[in-house]
Amino acid sequence: MPETGTSSVRVPYGYFIVIACFLIEGCGIGAYVAFSVFFKPLLKDFGWSRATISGASSLAYLLMGLIGIVAGSLNDRFGPRIVMALTGIICGIGYFLLSQIQSSWELYVLYGLLVGTGLSSADVIPLTVTARWFLRRRGMMTGIIKVGTGSGQLVMPLLAGALIMAYGWRAAFVGFGIVVAVVLIGAGQFLRRDPGVKGNVLDGAGAHARMAEGAREDGLSLREAVRTPQFWLFCIITFLVMNCLLTILMHVVPHASDIGLDPIKAAGVVSTVGGVSMLGRLLTGFLIDRIGTRKSMTICFILLIAAFLWLQVAHNAWMLYLFAAVYGVAHGSFFTLISPTVARLFGISSHGVLVGIILFSGNFGGAIGPVLAGYVFDLTNSYQLVFLLLAAVCGVALLLTPLLKPAVQKA
For the chain, which terminus, N or C, has the lower number of CB atoms within 10 Å? Predict the structure, then answer.
């Protein structure tokens, strides 16, 4: 037999990048979602209102977006490993100190401020690193790492619940914080800002496009990008759509209960959204590489509008679960579209900070939407007008989508 020991198949380092980003997305975003598991223990021990505890969660969500801009900018300048190490340490400290809280202001400082800052890198860093490492398969690889988000939303709350049941909520904060910090820091050390650091070729660009470390990248600077109408247009679209998506996540379970579903079936609606959204992320990643981001976004918005209109007549379990299936695909789709769209519009030279700003515009919309929806419900004692308004908002986003034309010729 011929000697084969001297030959080996070299696995492209980009695949290790995808695995690391998958873990960071799942752990980071899943950790934020898992905070809801601590609600009841905190209510029981301190007697705080739900609004008080929810306020700390909203503060963390806003800071994840705001500090995410800084994290994206630091990644563009210094690379992801330093950013992930710093934010992972901050996150771990925040969770450790949460085990000692005695008052609501401590909850706001430690969870809203420290943990919110620590989780700020969990979305923007994986998205921008993936965009730098992949071109031909950028959509599919982004879809895969965003499946990590859905996986984390399933796994991390279960982990938090198991720790609380076994050791109590104070010790659970410590254990949970250790897990989150280890994953964010550990997986982050596998990341590299540029393919050239590992001697790789940018995916799909050909050998002539080998990325040397420090080489000039195509695309607009932050200053150039913010002077284009496309940048502000995409911020507006993201604000509008995230307004709708977070409203559904917050209010669809109460709506299901209002129309007669028992608690398990009502919770199953949002679980279905989470599960199906993973399919939506993969499907959209596949479509982006074949039909582009703008057509994929159009399909996403049409599905959202159809789902919200369906809610006008969905008055029993199977109709709500059908809504959850259609909406779940679109929900996962939009989160997958953000990073590749930024790369298509503006290139990748300032991709991190641009994604950070656009995600923050979405976080801002996501913080406002559920509050406004609650106000409308209080006035009308129904969600029907809310769902109709959500369809109209997505209709505006759909009309704006054809205007998203690249500000650069190639990314």
Answer: N
